[in-house]
Amino acid sequence: MNSVRKIFRITYYFAVILLFGIIAIIGYTQTRSFKTYLRDLILHESVTFMNGELHLDAIEGNLISGFRVNNVHVTEGGMELFSAQRLEIKYDPIGFLFKRVSISNVVIEKPRIYITRAINGKYNIDRLFNPAPEDSTSSSWTINIKRLELAEAEVALIDSLLLYERQTGKRIMPPDRMIDFAHLHLRGLSVVASARIQPHEYTASIKKFSAILYQEEPVHSFDGPGQSPDPLGTPLLTLENLSGDFLLTRDEASARHITLETPNTHIRCDAGIKGIDITRISSLEEMKSVPVDFSLTAENLDTRELKLFLSPSIDFLDRSLTLQLNAAGTFGVLNVEQLSIGLPESHIKLHGQVRNLHQPRELEMSVEANDNLITPHDLLDCMPGLHLPDLAFLGTVKFSLTYEGRPLDFKTRLTGYTSAGDITIDGKMKFDPANITYSGTVDVHSLGLGTIFNDQSLASNIHARITADGAGFNLHTMTGIAKVEMDSSSFSGLPIQHSVLVFDIADGSLRSPIGASVGCAN
After folding, report:
1. DSSP 3-state assignment of 437?
2. More confident residue, 218 or 195
3. Which of 510, 511, 513, 489 is nearest to 500 (CA)?
4. Which in 173, 213, 251, 257 has the greatest CB count within 10 A?
5. pLDDT tier, 96 (very low <50, low <70, confident <90, very high otherwise)
């Protein structure tokens, strides 16, 4: 019995001593001397993993649940790379006992980030940190950042390698009003996000991401926290918000609930891929049977903003449109459930299938589009860069389309209904390195030449069929035969009965026997 009491007494005294020791340690961590010691230790240890210099003011806070630091600066090669007016972190210390870093809030106020790429291709960020030894073992720690906020941030970028390649003629200057990625400046950058990193799984959620993009030469460094040069000119693009949820695991990657908003564009997007580790993909062949899905809804897509990124490829576009795309399947067989494009008075809807995305050389497509409408002035207004002729005489065009085959070996059928007549095209074409072969028919009904040429002296009502079968387009080497048949037609008041016009071309010569019946005999 005495032994039990003795053990209890020893345990009690030990617990009391431990408790007072912990309290003493906690109390000491609140003193200015400890915070000064910790600050000096951080500055000293930073030399071991950084090639730059770290500067920061005194550490404030209780250090048990969080701390804050004012005026943080990082320089590399004598140039400022990062600065922040205030850095504040709040965390749960208990989590460290269970290999869990739980950070409830991180606030970086007025950060300034200056990124450069030297002519040798190295970024200053890459040079800043000393290379860490390779470690193939995965960490068992979990890092959970519940809230990360960047307030009033600025990011400046200069790519000296790209600028040098332009000077030497290896690269060309981007067109006017296109984003020049050689020198950029983001101002008013605000971010609210969260992230979770655990073994073999990474998740992130962006609640808010907004910024204003300027095209200007960033200066060497900022003038200090809260100070930056005035922007040159008007902003190229204002990103009002970008948000979404992201996931990466060993067998899945996804981007869900993506929303992108600018003053003139509103886009929603979802995409996912399963059954493969995308970080270990070595070739597209591995993607053949991988399930994928993609959906995009653009309630309003301003193509003038899109041209900032894709010019000159889409320079012909110059208006807003709506877009809807839904696709799912595998890289071997991807089903396009819907692709629709809307213009003010036109709409195009199609569906189909894309095959062999994992083998681009063997790409095949099946497309079907029914009951679509196009108004000619929509084409002129939305695609001025194509310099299309004014086809207003056609009125609103209703058409249907089918397509089957490869980009260079396909068959197609197009049916169109216009104010100037109806047309049906049914044919196939194959592009070979040696030659091009083609065959098909064109049926025309109620063709009004007077409507097309705006000349009533050419008034007509033509019903005709054109049949062609040939190879090549060079008049000296092409071969083929074409037949034009007309019946029950009229031109300028004259009836046209059964008429046939045949063209036979080979060896650079053209032969054309004609049979026609015009008017009526008494």
Report:
1. strand
2. 195
3. 513
4. 213
5. confident
- Judged on CB neighbours under 10 Å (0-12, 13-18, 19+), 508 is exposed
Structure tokens at 98: 């269970």
Q: Tell me the DSSP string of 90-109.
A: EEEGGGGGGTEEEEEEEEEE
Q: For the whole model, what pTM was predicted?
A: 0.81
State the Cα–Cα distance between residues 252 and 129, nearest whole angstrom: 31
Q: Indicate the DSSP class of residue 473.
A: S
Q: Report cis status (omega within 30 of 0) of the bond before 312.
A: yes
Angle made by CA atoms 449, 452, 454, in degrees to the nearest 5: 95
Q: Which amino acid is at 127?
A: R
What the block records as the tokens of 146 is 């519940």
Q: What are the backbone dihedrals phi and psi of residue 230, each rounded to the nearest 5 degrees, phi first?
A: -65, 145
Locus of tokens 């071969």: 479
How far apart CA 402 and CA 342 sit, in angstroms, is: 20
pLDDT band at 401 (very low <50, low <70, confident <90, very high): very high
Half-sphere exposure of 282 (CA within 13 A, CB side): 0
Contact 73, 82 (CB under 8 A): yes
Lowest mean pLDDT among 152-161, 230-239, 320-329: 230-239
Tokens of 374: 């196009």
At 231, the amino acid letter reads P
Higher-pLDDT residue of 233, 189: 189
**Count, residues in the chain:** 522
In sign, the C-alpha dihedral spanning 97, 100, 101, 104 is negative
pLDDT exceeds cutoff 70 at 517: no
The predicted pLDDT at position 413 comes to: 96
| Degrees to nearest 5, angle at CA 114 with 113 and 118 | 145
φ, ψ (nearest 5 deg) of residue 387: 55, 50
DSSP state of 279: G
d(Cα 349, Cα 372) in Å, to the nearest integer? 6
Indicate the domain borders of the chain. Answer: 49-130+139-239
DSSP per-residue codes, 350-387: EEEEEE-TTSGGG-EEEEEEEEEEE-HHHHHHH-GGG-
CA distances from 463 to 174, 414, 426, 488, 490 (A): 50, 17, 16, 7, 9
Q: Find out whether 214 and 230 touch, Cβ atoms under 8 Å.
A: no
